[in-house]
Amino acid sequence: MNVQLTKSLSFDVSAVRSQFEILAREVYGKPLVYLDSAASAQKPWAVLGAMTTFAETEYANVHRGVHYLSAKATRRYEDARETVRHFLNAAHADEIIFTKGGTEAINLVANSYLAPRIQPGDQIVLTTMEHHSNIVPWHFLRERQGAVLRWVDIGDDGALDADAVDAAIGPKTRLVAVAHMSNVLGTVAPLAEIVRRAHAKNVPVLADGGQGAVHRPVDVQDLDVDFYAFTGHKLYGPTGIGALYGKHAHLKSMRPFNGGGEMIAEVTRDKITYAEPPARFEAGTPPIIEAVGLATALDWLSSLDREAIADHERALLDHATSELEKLNWARIIGTAPGKGSILSFETTGMHAHDVATILDREGVAVRAGHHCAQPLMERFGVASTTRASFALYNTHAEVEALIGALHKAGKVLS
Amino acid sequence: MDDALRELYQEVILDHSRHPRHFGALADATHRGEGYNPLCGDRVTVYLHLDDTNRIKDISFEGRGCAISQASASLMTDLVKGRTIDEAEQLMGGFLHLVKGESSDALENVDREKLEVMAGVSAFPMRVKCATLAWHTMKSALEGGKSAKTE
User: Is residue A36 part of a domain?
Assistant: First the structure.
């Protein structure tokens, strides 16, 4: 405990908070307590400022003009790609494709990588803790091409067992698609082990890093994962940008998903040839300002002590968990060992939306609903849950505010 | 607690949501509608028994949802029972105006008084859909029933 305390002191939460203008505001006359970062994180002024400065001083379209600004902007855009490469420890920058978000990244894999490889009856292995972004693209392949979805269930505590994933992988499996970290349960998948087992059967693995990339340093080479998708806005960066990491050999074998400018080698009246990856998958003008914002967010995050951040978030989670356990009308869903700082709970006799409405009036922003994870809701027999998610800028005082507001909700509704 | 919240979760609403009227399936239903709110995953089923003169002889609902949606469904069943389809639809029109905070003269005074408890929803735009779910479901039950009858 003392060790943990010393460690978290190396992370100065109030200094970090002061970089987020929005966290100082009030809602309904109460201080904002923002516990919805798993849906979207707030952005530090470094990110917002970098985007504004870039737009004010260096902006133009990329990869096109020969003029000064176009060269500048192209440089910044490609530097951003290098920043993402470094953030994921990918081997090459051309293994990083900018997308409009994590969802588009997964859809790109579904359309360009998997669709041409799917025969009727071929299987895609996924888990019951997936977000819809890592479910619906595979359902498309089921509807259109007769793919079969094989669901791996998680345990009652929300833990995902690599053995269970392994057992679901058969001769017809063409891909394993798994969340690095669950957006509802906080469960962290044993990703390296899943990849190892899948590769032993020559099956590639896609990881949905929407949450995982935020809370854990990611090393795609160490994980040996084939595809890794994440989004910028949950990583303290802007909306409208995300990235797909793909192993070069896979990307090279893939046909484009979108057609348009910048993704071709040559276009004639009769035929086209495609550019090499990553340009092949970035048709049209990309989110240039957002790429600069994302790179700034990743640099900003990397400049902090990420281990200390993880300790801080874990301490917040532990604090909230122990307080919530005292409420006999709240049931925590997702208690897997080593889980990330997401706390979902069901409230007996009270609907999540009513709870969230009352919390909101206390200034406490939480998510209520099915969290775009309906198969998971079904798994736990609930229609919806209330979810508090803790980010690096949250404080123990905010955990207390959450608990205080929950007591109020309990009084009003029960 | 602030006034808007007190208005939203007043005792009548909580009473309806804890002890909903006309809850459960209707054995001799002539019409049935399924409602779903994709935002929260709530579901409601509305059952209607229409007599030969298109009057709602009986109505019930089942499903699960928030206090607002349950109370609204319960109030609705109380109010539309015994009315004709046209009367029920007019009531619905007035109710939709009420929960959106729009002025309207679609409601009779006696109905307005009974539905006034739901007016607090208008201060919570994110919750209007909760309040209207059962009503839209009733309407689709009536419409679905009509087309089913013509077969």
Answer: no
Q: Where in the sequence is the domain holding A323, given as residue range(s)?
A: 2-31+305-413
A357 contacts in B (CB within 8 Å)? 5, 8, 124, 126-127
Query: Which H or E element spans position A227?
Result: strand A227-231
By C-alpha distance, which of A50, A39, A47, A52 is closest to A21?
A47
A351/B67 CB distance under 8 A: yes
Q: How far apart are CA A231 and CA A53, in angstroms?
A: 22
Residue A100's Cβ-side half-sphere holds a number of Cα atoms within 13 Å equal to 7
Rounded Cα distance between A350 and B35, Å, is 20
Tell me: the pLDDT tens digits for B18-59?
999 999 999 999 999 999 888 777 889 999 999 999 999 999
Residue that is last in its domain, among A253, A286, A302: A302
Percentage of residues in chain B having pLDDT higher than 70 = 95
Contacts with A412 from chain B: Cβ below 8 Å: 1, 5, 9
Judgement on whether residues A288 and A393 belong to the same structural domain of the protein: no
d(CA B39, nearest CA chain A) in Å: 7
pLDDT tens per residue, range A163-191: 999 999 999 999 999 999 999 999 999 99
Strand partners, A243: A98, A230
pLDDT digits (tens, 9 = 90+) for A232-280: 999 999 999 999 999 999 999 999 989 888 888 889 999 999 999 999 9
Would you call A353 and B40 a contact, using CB atoms and an 8 Å cutoff?
yes
Residues A184-213 pLDDT 10s: 999 999 999 999 999 999 999 999 999 999
What dotted CATH number matches B3-144? 3.90.1010.10
User: What is the average pLDDT score of chain A?
Assistant: 95
Answer for the pair A181, A340: CB distance below 8 angstroms, yes or no: yes
Q: Do B66 and A353 touch (CB under 8 A)?
A: yes
d(CA A46, CA A61): 23
Contact B96, B70 (CB under 8 A): no
Any idea which of A155-159, A202-206, B118-122 has the lowest mean pLDDT? B118-122
A42 part of a folded domain? no
Q: Report the CATH number at residue A62.
A: 3.40.640.10
DSSP calls for A199-223: HHTT--EEEE-TTHHHHS---HHHH
